[in-house]
Every structure is written in structure tokens, then in C-alpha cells.
Recover the amino acids of this structure.
């Protein structure tokens, strides 16, 4: 009789301990518990010690930390009909645990699929040059598009970063030729601007030298000094054109 009573008390203790283990939950600082009572939403609990009524209540844990999600490589056709492969990474976190559990079956998978389709649709509206040169603006456009759609799921998309834009070999060669032509165009423009500035300076120098009769002679002597300093056997002696005019006038006068 005593043995049977001991077995009954032991079974009762095991049952009580099992109920306590099922009722007591400890949630970390970054966790929240979405509690359902008889299938209906009861509330959000945590962090810390949480007591759940076994059988009547159930709890689903939700991680509130920022999740880093790698978006697989997507085939994108740009607005100028260029086929590229683009992959990205998004950073998001759950801000409303109840919506993340109730409104969508699997918020991680749903966010991943939505990010893939949004990446293709947003980049398809832009040309290749914009994808390569304006990534910050494209990142912001994708982030805003995702954030609007995930708001109903209680998810906040914090940031989107495009990692790689891969092109085929033919397109890479075409871009290289385009860049080379662009550099040549800039070189010609810079050379033309240099010629224009030089002509303006020469015009100003000629005007200044024409104001003084001896200024040109001094310039001639400076040129001779520069030639003599180069250890050359050739001597160039410049003569003003006015000398020839005076000689011609004197000859005509003697006639």
C-alpha cells in the first residue's frame, strides 16, 4: 500500500515538473514571444521570464536582430536591352512580431522571394550606365520598394547593397571601346582649349610688345642668348621687317 502511494506521489511530481517545464520560458533580450490562447492571438511577451498555460496557450519565438539576406544572382535586362547578372544583399529586421507571424507564413522566405523580384523590376527600369555609376541611388530605390511591401509583414528593410554587376565578354569589350573613344574626345577638347588659351596669350603679348619700339629688339636678343646657350653652330639673327621697308624706300628715292 505504501509502495503504491509512493508511486502515485512520484508520478504526480513528474507531471507537475513537466507542466512547469512547459509553462516556464526564458526569452533573451533580442527575442519576443507571440502568444496564442486557444488559437487566438493573445499578445507579445518578453524578454525575460515568461509563463505560458500549457495546452491552452502556445508561444512562437521571434528573433528581433537584423538579418543579413543574400539575394541570389538574377538575370536582368536593362532599359537599353543589355543582359546582365546582378546579385545583392539586404539587411532587415522584425519590428512587429505579431505581424511577422500572423500576416505571412514564413517571413524569411517571403522577404527573400520579394527581394529577388524587386531587384529585377527596379533595375530593369534603368540603363546599364546607371547600374554601374549610380549604385547608391539604385540601392535606395530598391530599399524603398521593399520597405513599402514588407511593412504589412512587420518587417523593416534597413539597407540594400548591390554587390556585383556581371557582363559578358562582348559587352565588356564594347564598353572598353566606348571608354577609349570618350578619353580621346576629352583629349582633343583639352588640346583645343590649350590652343585657344595660347593664342589669347600670344595676342596679349604681341599687343604689349607693340607698345614699345625697343621691346621687340630685346626679345630678339633674348632669343639669340637662348640659341647660343644650346652649343649649336647655327646662328639665327632676326631682322625686323621695317628695315627692309626703309631700304626699299631709300632705293626708290635715289632713283
Amino acid at each position: 500500500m505504501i509502495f503504491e502511494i509512493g508511486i502515485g506521489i512520484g508520478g504526480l511530481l513528474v507531471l507537475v515538473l513537466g507542466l512547469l517545464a512547459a509553462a516556464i520560458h526564458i526569452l533573451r533580450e533580442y527575442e519576443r514571444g507571440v502568444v496564442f490562447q486557444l488559437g487566438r492571438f493573445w499578445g507579445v511577451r518578453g524578454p525575460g521570464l515568461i509563463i505560458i498555460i500549457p495546452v491552452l496557450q502556445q508561444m512562437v519565438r521571434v528573433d528581433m536582430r537584423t538579418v543579413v539576406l543574400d539575394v541570389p544572382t538574377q538575370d536582368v535586362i536593362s532599359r537599353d536591352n543589355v543582359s546582365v547578372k546582378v546579385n545583392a544583399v539586404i539587411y532587415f529586421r522584425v519590428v512587429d512580431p505579431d505581424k511577422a507571424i500572423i500576416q505571412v507564413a514564413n517571413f524569411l522566405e517571403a522577404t527573400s522571394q520579394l527581394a529577388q523580384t524587386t531587384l529585377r523590376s527596379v533595375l530593369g527600369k534603368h540603363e546599364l550606365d546607371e547600374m554601374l555609376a549610380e549604385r547608391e541611388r539604385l540601392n535606395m530605390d530598391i530599399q524603398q520598394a521593399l520597405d513599402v511591401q514588407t511593412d504589412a509583414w512587420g518587417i523593416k528593410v534597413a539597407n540594400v547593397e548591390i554587390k556585383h554587376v556581371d557582363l559578358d565578354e562582348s559587352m565588356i569589350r564594347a564598353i572598353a571601346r566606348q571608354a577609349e573613344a570618350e578619353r580621346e574626345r576629352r583629349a582633343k577638347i583639352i588640346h583645343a582649349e590649350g590652343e585657344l588659351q595660347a593664342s589669347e596669350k600670344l595676342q596679349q603679348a604681341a599687343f604689349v610688345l607693340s607698345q614699345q619700339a625697343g621691346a621687340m629688339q630685346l626679345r630678339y636678343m633674348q632669343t639669340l642668348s637662348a640659341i647660343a646657350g644650346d652649343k649649336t653652330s647655327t646662328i639665327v639673327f632676326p631682322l625686323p621687317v621695317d628695315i627692309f621697308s626703309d631700304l626699299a624706300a631709300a632705293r626708290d628715292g635715289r632713283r
